Amino acid sequence: MRIAVFDSDPQQGTLIVETLRAAGYSCTLLTQREPLSMSGPGHEIDLMIHHWHGPIEPQQHLSELSRCWPTLPILLVFGGTPPAALAELLEQGRTDYLVKPLRRGELLLRVSVLMARVAPDKLRTRTLHFGNYTFEPQRGLAWRDGNPVALTQKEGKLALLLFRNLGRPLSRATIHEAVWPKVAELNSRSLDTHISRVRSKLALRPENGYRLAPVYSYGYQLEGLEFPEQNPVTPGV
Questions:
Q1: Which of 12, 13, 141, 170 has the smallest set of CB atoms within 10 Å of its CB?
Q2: For residues 106 and 192, what is the distance between their CA atoms, to the nearest angstrom?
Q3: For the whole prediction, is pTM greater than 0.85?
Q4: pLDDT single digits (tens) 112-144
């Protein structure tokens, strides 16, 4: 899936692009306004992420984007809560928004939810790359260094949850809700066992660029040691 990121701040735009690329998306960073008046790019990308900041009213700005790309999903980034006047356009379902500071997990979630709602076919065959690890979520397949790794369905979900939140501690409750949503209570030992199996099967060790470690009295965190492009968007961006 191809995403265009428009941001007049190259540093912030680069952080967004790096986060999305680490999650397996193909991204292009635009820092000039001219491409917004072109009809061509609308046929080459699947989603536009646009950092809103400018003198015109946001609803006028969104209308302009919609005229340029009438069928393109748009994810707006605001410095604060968008005005009520924007609600009607947001209700069309093809547009969503995020409020700064951006957080890696929320950014990836909004992209996934918006595309699943507007163009689910774009997500069906998406391959996710994290350094030397590759996943195909829809088929439940995983590879390390090009070699297949046999993961159960739950192990696959757990591994993707950890990679998608790289560098971010996840509570046991968050992991429980994401991987075992229909289980009322999850035995603590069962979670620890699944974590251990994922660590072992994927060889998540420092020599391979990752460390999967417990966070005392909280949960677990997967850290990337050798792949700086996978670091989360820093707070305050």
A1: 141
A2: 25
A3: no
A4: 778 877 776 666 556 777 778 888 877 778 888
